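Possible regression after last week's pipeline update?

I re-ran a chain I had predicted before the update to compare outputs. Posting the input and the new output here so someone can diff against the archived version. Not blocking, just want to make sure nothing changed silently.
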Amino acid sequence: MFCNHKLYIYFMRTKVILLLICLFILTSAFFLRTKESEKFKIYWNEKLIKGKANYLAEEPEVISSHERPNVIIILADDLGQTDISLYGGTKVSTPNIDAIGKNGVTFAEGYITSPVCSPSRAGLLTGRYQQRFGHEIQPSNRYLKSMIEYYGFKLLPRFRPLSPIKMKEVPEAEERLRQGLPPSEITIADVLKKYDYQTGIIGKWHLGAADFAKPCARGFDYQYGFYEAFTLYSPKSDTSVTDVPVKGDFMDKHQWNEAEGRTGNCAILRNCCERQEESKYLTDKLTDEAIAYIDRSKTKPFFLYLPYNAPHAPLQAQNKYYSQFKNIKDPVKRAYAAMIKNLDDEVGRLMNYLKENGLEENTIIFFLSDNGGAVYNGTTDNFPYRGGKLTNFEGGIRVPFMMQWKGKIQPGTTVSTPVISLDIFKTVANAVGITLPTDRDYDGIDLLALANHSINTERALCWRSEFSKGIRKGEWKMLMNEFDKTNVLYNLKTDVRETRNVFAEHPKVVEALQKEFNAWEKNMIQPLWPRVVNYVYKDSLGTSTFAF
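New output (post-update):
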């Protein structure tokens, strides 16, 4: 009896303690929760919005049809430069992608404006550094809900290499929906549509899903694809596809969970409203859609923006390609190689269609990637470059970059002058004869003139993601990291791997680059929305933090 009484007291005490712990957690969660704040309200440039409306409403100059080439931009997703055989890649042979450079020009040092998807695409489609209009940070519809969530995210190893931002206040739900390409910006589709082009996007958008940001509101007559950063290539039930989740990678797990069922912004849509229940492997389906779109549009000049999502995670490879890489033992790297090979074949199918239908001669074709390969998930290493996606090292911002225009560029041309994705806008505008608006600055140069040696330029290229900053001019590249409080200078001519910091040895170079970067930064604005996490990159040379 006495023992039962003691046992009863013990259990009651345990219950009380557990109850108190639960109350403490709930109380802490209440008082430590993040609060939605008006201070993150997004303000757009009304003057530029008005200027855009006036420009698009003006009658364009009359240009005869034979002077207007078709334009195709093929954008790969998370594809490193050296994943392509033309750039020395040995794991996958990519003859069809290589052929674009061999039939035209290969840019040996091609760059993108950001090492992460959405800001990179904003710069590409507008021809302007995205920092000019605040699209500097990856949009996010999810912020930490409490300090408890923050500390859990911060301390648990499973979330690394991401490091959350400590925020007591977060954007309001309505403002999170407004994170997207600002309505002040004129896209390449806007200007081509003004000049009576058919305009289509087929693939990944990732520039916002609010009505003002959807591609159908940004100059595109036709859309097929999805709004999010990722989606499934094929339903998980598809037995012709091998699914390869990356064990231990939080971002990969998140992507599989979010893409499940292809709902929300991961849904496949046609014309920004009609949801498609698609069973065909997506890389192949996007090519089908591209060919069908061109077939419908070829009676007049057309612009096709074809942003494939390959080889971005989640990793899903068709068995017929996965079986070709039995020599690669790591299933992650094997799936990645298979997806690149699949992409190359689909690019080849599109190019064959153009040739067979007499469209190749009068079509400008660009091929590039939105950023470097993602080293954090083990798919690639971007060798010989350091780092990868999310970093400002060469592996994150140097990408495959090619251009073809039969009869206008000497086949097999190679340009060693550094170029950047912003140049595509100016190149197309000049080729078509477009007069650009004068109420805003454009940042590109004419790649056709560069390829044909009619211009010679040495300019500074700049990068900024809040505290992660960088500038490249000539052989010199300087990175300034205000979070880590580090400054590094590399000579890319002798040290493309970025292993030796010569900052202290070249004070005059540092001074000149800093002065040029400061002048560039004065013309930029602050990000329109706050970041959620930082990315902590580690290798044998040290640890670096980058804004994401």
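Follow-up from reviewer: compared with the archived run. The CA atoms of residues 475 and 493 lie 5 Å apart. Marking as no regression found.
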